[in-house]
Amino acid sequence: MMGSDKMADIYDRNKNAVFRMAFSYCKNKADAEDIMQDVFIKLFTGGAEFESEDKERSWLLKVTVNKCRDMFRSLRYRYSLTSIPLDEACLTYETPEESEVYHAVMSLPTKYRIVIHLYYYEDYSVKEISSITGTKESAVQTQLYRARKKLKDILGKELLT
Amino acid sequence: MNMNDYKKVTDRLEPDERCRKEVLDMSKRENRIKQNTNEFEEKVSGVEVRRGNGALRFVGIAAAFALIAGGIGTTGVLLHKNSRNVSQLTEAGEEETVTEELTEEVTEEATESEAGEDYDYEAIAIENTDGYLERTNILVYGDVEYDANDTITFYTYDSSDAEWSEKYGGERTFCKVTDERFNSCQDIYDYYKELIADTIEFEGYSEPLIMASDYKDGVTLDGAGVVSYLGGDASGFENGSKVDLYIPDPEDDSTVDYTAHGINGGVYIDYNGELYLRPHDDWVEHYTSEPVIVENSEDRIVVSRYIDYNMQNEQYGTQKLFTLVLQNGEWKIQSIGTGMQPEYLSSIAIQCYLEDRAEYNDINIDCGDIMAPLEMLEYDEENKTSRVHAVLHDVNGVDAIDVTADIDLNSVKVTSADITRLNEYDGTLKRPSVIWAEEHPDGKE
């Protein structure tokens, strides 16, 4: 059974990555925090062990994506009428460009947002994203291509990386 | 303009610090219960452990988080009740508990205002909090007059999910609203907004939100979208018809037929120019105290008032802190925070206290099982302490212990406890939990 210190270390090491992944999916802080907590509790009570911190993080992000999908499949989302807007209250922009780009990314359909976040923010390869999202590599490539194209349409120009 | 702009904004996003404590506390607690249960299952044969479905588990955990740190209530949802009989020793060491009458009430002292000559703060506090509750009960619980004989009915289903259709779909009957104040969903939202400030704030959020003018983009002070309650114009569906809720792509909002979902889950819908209501049970929220002004200045008042929305007939319930602001010469509600929850926090404290003591492993300590019989003997709001009494059951539902406890509500800990066993401890009755025993419903993780 995992000790308190180890749990705290793992939490502190990964909380932001898990929360930001969940926020990218849910677009609101409350749900992202709920999912983040659920993910860590699953790890801490399930007894999973990892050979490296990289494996630990990719497992956490994989579970996060699955939890997000579960939430969107759940009765609360499927059969309530709550259309979740972007939770602006917890976001800060220092330049108009930051706001413009962030809103453009968050306006993408969920599946595109996820690959954009994992590819550009978490620096995962297509192969790793395929493993995390459970999507074929070719599909990830296609989603990345379409996401970039949509961003270009929204912003009126190609985004530099 | 490049992807670094996305990264920079994302880099500033962080979860609240309280999450850390909640995650670590709950994990430790789950592990302790898990350890107990593993031992229990090794020792006791023939115990059937129920495995709940994924959706229930999620709902349980989410609800627990929504309540407070710890979320121990999750375990109770899935607790297995051992069916074997045990002998009950009702005479064993039973003690009489002296119950002190509750003498302290949340009393209000006349609040001297620095600019008090202009406003009657007490009257403002009453008007706004009473008005808010009335409007919430109308919006959320459909507390309006209606004609039960003038109805329209639809039958909801999901063409892609027979199980859901069987369990949760089916008849949705709406009654015509006869309350002359309301002729449309927009009217309901406009009425709700009357006492709400143009910009509203949520707990834990740094920036205020602008109150939407249209119910379709609406928000409420509890943070939920009002479209959940207001389904909009369903005239496109024939009365008596079947309504398919199928969502081709759950990850793409554009594939959702919001009108169909309005029929399925909404409290109100518009239909051929009339307003209809799907009646609930007689279920409305109510206050358990009068308003108390805790802060006031020329343009801001904070009002405390306790509300019972758990529908458990609590003596206090949950303290709500209404922040009222002056807007164009009128006082409006800008935010509603949550303060003390004397019964709930006392229950959590007792739960943790009992959980750590092996001699009470047979006691049902689900939060709801403690809250239901809980009597609040004393509650000191200023010092945040309580004295409570409850008779708790063992896992067979038999009266097992009589508890009187003093609680520090700040730290959510029992400071002293007088516990009398009403039956003999049966070591075979350790409470099990099954949360960790579950597998992901899709077998993914």
Characterize the structure shown.
The complex is a heterodimer of chains A (161) and B (445). Chain A contains eight helices and no strands. Chain A is mainly alpha-helical. The N and C termini of chain A lie far apart (43 Å). The mean pLDDT of chain A is 87. Chain B has a six-stranded mixed sheet, sandwiched between helices. In chain B, strands 9, 10, 11, 12 and 13 form a five-stranded antiparallel sheet that branches. A four-stranded antiparallel sheet of chain B has the order 14-15-16-17. With 445 residues, chain B is an alpha+beta fold. In chain B, a hairpin with a 4-residue loop joins strand 14 (375-380) and strand 15 (385-393). Chain B has helices at residues 3-11, 18-43, 54-67, 73-78, 121-141, 162-168, 185-193, 258-265, 342-355, 367-371, and strands at 146-157, 170-177, 199-200, 209-210, 230-233, 242-244, 268-271, 274-277, 286-287, 292-296, 300-308, 318-327, 330-338, 375-380, 385-393, 399-408, 413-421. Classes of the chains: A mainly alpha (161), B alpha+beta (445). Chains A and B meet through helix 1, helix 2, helix 3, helix 4 and helix 5 of A and helix 1, helix 2, helix 3 and helix 8 of B.
Features:
heterodimer; A: 161 residues; mainly alpha; 8 helices; B: 445 residues; alpha+beta; six-stranded mixed beta sheet; five-stranded antiparallel beta sheet; 17 strands; globular
**Quaternary state, please?**
heterodimer
Q: What is the string of SSEs of chain B from the N terminus onward?
A: HHHHHEHEHEEEEHEEEEEEEHHEEEE
SSE ordering of chain A: HHHHHHHH
Number of DSSP strands of chain A? 0
Mean pLDDT across every amino acid position of chain A: 87
